[in-house]
Amino acid sequence: MHILIIEDDLDLGRALQKALNLEGFSSEWLRQAADAPRSFEGLHYACILLDLSLPDGDGQTLLARWRREGVAIPIIIMTARAALEERIAGLDGGADDFIVKPFATVELASRMRAVLRRYAQQSRQVWTIGDLELEPKSYLMRLAGSPVDLSRREFQLMLELAREPGIVVSKSALSERLEPLGEPVNFGAIDVHIFNLRGKIGGHRIRTVRGVGYMLVPC
């Protein structure tokens, strides 16, 4: 999953990118409010990690603007401001979660997975779509209770489709989400992975919408 980090601290930003990559998240890192996207059209972030204290502005202002404009991407606030009033303001302002610095990266990754489960309307550690079960943390998938052997890339692709079952996910979105640090995956490679997945879970479960992308069919 590809995420956006907005954090001005050099050491923390580098450490976050490295640690979260080990947890299966690729990322883009920005250091100033001015560099944050004005619009998220065409951008495919699964989650935003937002520092409140930026050198050229307040993350709370960014958060308020995004929510006012209808941006629905999950947002987790990262800040050294530990006061109850700050947490309430952040959550009431539209943040999905709030973590106080310093924090353990494993806790942040766990909170991110929880937020993403809620976004995907999955309340448990196991995502269920019909008779498919996926465990994002352990990279396991089962079909009708039986394990399915997937490569890491195949599992990542299934997870992206499972986030929006019944909805077409464009190839461009899949390309940006799948490669560490946001380097796009070739569309041909995505087609090959889809072909392999169909052979493992059944061709009827992944529908092709020509010229657009793929859809996981709940069944």
UniProtKB/TrEMBL annotation:
Annotated InterPro entries: CheY-like_superfamily (IPR011006), OmpR/PhoB-type_DNA-bd (IPR001867), Sig_transdc_resp-reg_receiver (IPR001789), WalR-like (IPR039420), WH-like_DNA-bd_sf (IPR036388)
Oxidoreductase listed as a keyword: no
Chain positions found as 4-aspartylphosphate: 51
Residue ranges of DNA binding: 124-218
Domain named Response regulatory: residues: 2-116
UniProt xrefs under SUPFAM superfamilies: CheY-like
Keywords per UniProt: DNA-binding, Phosphoprotein
Keyword match Amino-acid biosynthesis: no
Domain OmpR/PhoB-type: 124-218
PANTHER family: REGULATOR OF RPOS, TRANSCRIPTIONAL REGULATORY PROTEIN CUTR
Protein's UniProt name: Response regulator
Organism, as annotated: Massilia frigida
Lineage: Bacteria, Pseudomonadati, Pseudomonadota, Betaproteobacteria, Burkholderiales
